[in-house]
């Protein structure tokens, strides 16, 4: 919880306040905020009931997620009291925060005790995109060549780097299904290596070392899924059964899903509410998975 103390002085012309005119305001809000509409960022609290909101007209959710090639974006807006506004409010009774900011027509029964709007300030919105394949292996451990660059590690040569590739070895068996057995304590040291060749299954395109690539051991059904091709139920899938070496050549890879997480943070500088002077206000990070959690489809190049 971010706790900030500010001094309110009712005399705008004075640099110091008389003892009787000083009120201590504690802006005790969480480190996260929400968003809705076009575009309002807000945070609320109870006991006492307060809200702090930022209105940025003409700015959409798509705008704040439009990161560049480096997966970052910085947007700035200047507070002008019309299109870009920062408002601090207190309430006599606790409002229904679910529709306090997100309705075109605000509820009629809101009991606003006081409202103060900033007369200046700069709003800086910073967005960072992180992508991952969610295959059970931390991205940092998918730097196979150890050079610190995740983008040049592509074990199966399908054009998708391992940290975004849900099938690192291109055998049409998802990495998450090849028993990587990752733990924080042991890393990938216990990853399954079915044929004992020193290459874990998730990086081995011939898991049983029978000379037939795993992706080509679809002897029952050609559906890009070697897991369900089982000639001998006592052994299991053919791609793990060295006694079965029939080849049915695969013609494509499965499509992959890349999971995206956006971190949206807001910093407000040179804020000046009437009677409240704030140099810098860290508004926090956006907490709304419907906005910050996305995905995209990646089509691997078959080779």
UniProtKB/TrEMBL annotation:
Residues 183-192 have a biased composition (Polar residues). Residues 142-236 are annotated as: Disordered. InterPro entries: TSP_type-3_rpt. Residues 194-209 have a biased composition (Acidic residues). It comes from the Bacteria. Coiled coil: none annotated. This is Thrombospondin type 3 repeat-containing protein. It comes from Geojedonia litorea. The lineage of its organism: Bacteria, Pseudomonadati, Bacteroidota, Flavobacteriia, Flavobacteriales.
């Amino acid at each position: 919880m971010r706790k900030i103390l500010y001094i309110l002085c009712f005399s705008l012309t004075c640099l110091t306040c008389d003892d009787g005119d000083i009120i201590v305001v504690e802006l005790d809000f969480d480190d996260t905020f929400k968003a809705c509409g076009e575009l309002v960022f807000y945070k609320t609290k109870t006991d006492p009931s307060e809200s702090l909101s930022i209105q940025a007209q003409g700015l959409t959710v798509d705008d704040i997620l439009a990161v560049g090639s480096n997966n970052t974006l910085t947007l700035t807006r200047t507070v002008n009291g019309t299109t870009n506004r920062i408002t601090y409010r207190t309430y006599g009774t606790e409002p229904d925060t679910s529709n306090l900011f997100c309705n075109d027509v605000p509820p009629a029964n809101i009991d606003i005790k006081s409202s103060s709007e900033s007369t200046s300030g700069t709003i800086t919105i910073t967005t960072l995109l992180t992508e991952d394949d969610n295959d059970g292996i931390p991205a940092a451990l998918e730097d196979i060549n150890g050079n610190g660059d995740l983008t040049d590690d592509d074990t199966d040569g399908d054009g998708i780097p391992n940290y975004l590739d849900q099938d690192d070895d291109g055998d049409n068996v998802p990495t998450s299904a090849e028993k990587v057995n990752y733990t924080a304590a042991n890393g990938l040291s216990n990853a399954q290596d079915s044929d004992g060749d020193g290459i874990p299954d998730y990086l081995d395109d011939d898991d049983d070392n029978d000379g037939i690539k795993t992706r080509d051991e679809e002897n029952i059904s050609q559906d890009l899924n070697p897991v369900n091709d089982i000639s001998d139920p006592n052994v299991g899938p053919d791609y793990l059964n060295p006694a079965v070496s029939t080849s049915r050549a695969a013609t494509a890879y499965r499509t992959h899903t890349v999971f995206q997480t956006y971190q949206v943070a807001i910093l407000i500088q040179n804020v000046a509410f009437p009677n409240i002077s704030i140099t810098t206000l860290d508004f926090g990070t956006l907490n709304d998975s419907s906005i910050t959690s996305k995905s995209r489809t990646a089509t691997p190049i078959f080779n």
